[in-house]
Design brief:
About 15% of the residues lie in helices and about 40% in strands. The protein is α+β, with helices and mostly antiparallel strands. The longest helix has 17 residues, at about 30-50.
């Protein structure tokens, strides 16, 4: 696992530094309108790539959100790797959300599969099958969780920090998606959603699913 920076995702440094330097150059030459626009763009880049610390819930039988954003769908659909029908929680990230993704549970990355594709609106159903995406199979002591990073209409870059065989802790960072996108979480059979459509969630902090009580 390649360790991330804290505070600002390292993938954002080139954008922030380039924009800040360009703003300075235009300011030195007295071109204040352009300098102001570039300074605003610098602020936006810093805001977009922010990577705050989160309070990770403790306890057994919990799965946290892999992404910041709004829950847009909870439905039973085929798992992208096995084809088995499983409950899927979809979280849509707009450009104002934190875009660093985190592991929903403690587990081992058993498989990572990248699918090239199109860039439809990530909120659409066909984004799950047609858009560019990266699928992670995370095996925990309580079952197999599948996490899917889906590029959206604006997002054109999925960043995968995890590698096959990595051991992830609940809430640990494993990647990000640039500029608006969606993350799907497929649950094991003995887990049920703990959120509702329309609810705002935060990566690594919001509990989105719980293990069902034993009968």
């Amino acid at each position: 696992m390649r360790s991330p920076s804290i505070g600002v995702a390292r993938e954002g440094y080139p954008f922030i530094l380039l924009l800040a330097f360009s703003s300075l150059i235009f300011a030195v030459f007295g071109c204040w309108p352009v300098a102001s626009i570039l300074l605003l763009a610098t602020w936006f880049a810093g805001h977009f790539f922010r990577d705050p610390e989160r309070v990770i819930p403790q306890g057994e039988g919990l799965a946290v959100s892999p992404a910041d954003g709004r829950v847009v769908k909870i439905q039973s659909v085929p798992d992208p790797l096995s084809g088995t029908s499983r409950t899927c929680i979809s979280v849509f990230m707009n450009v104002l959300n934190v875009h660093v993704n985190r592991s929903p549970v403690d587990g081992v990355v058993q498989e990572i599969v990248y699918f090239p594709g199109k860039f439809f609106n990530a909120a659409w159903d066909k984004a799950s099958t047609d858009n560019e995406r990266c699928v992670y199979a995370i095996e925990s002591n309580e079952g197999l969780f599948t996490v899917v990073q889906i590029a959206g209409l604006i997002a054109r870059r999925i960043v995968c920090r995890a590698e096959h065989g990595d051991t992830l802790k609940r809430g640990e960072r494993f990647g990000l998606i640039r500029f608006g996108s969606r993350v799907d979480l497929y649950l094991p059979e003995d887990y049920s959603p703990a959120v509702q459509v329309g609810e705002q969630v935060f990566a690594g902090q919001s509990i989105v699913a719980r293990r069902k009580a034993s009968l």
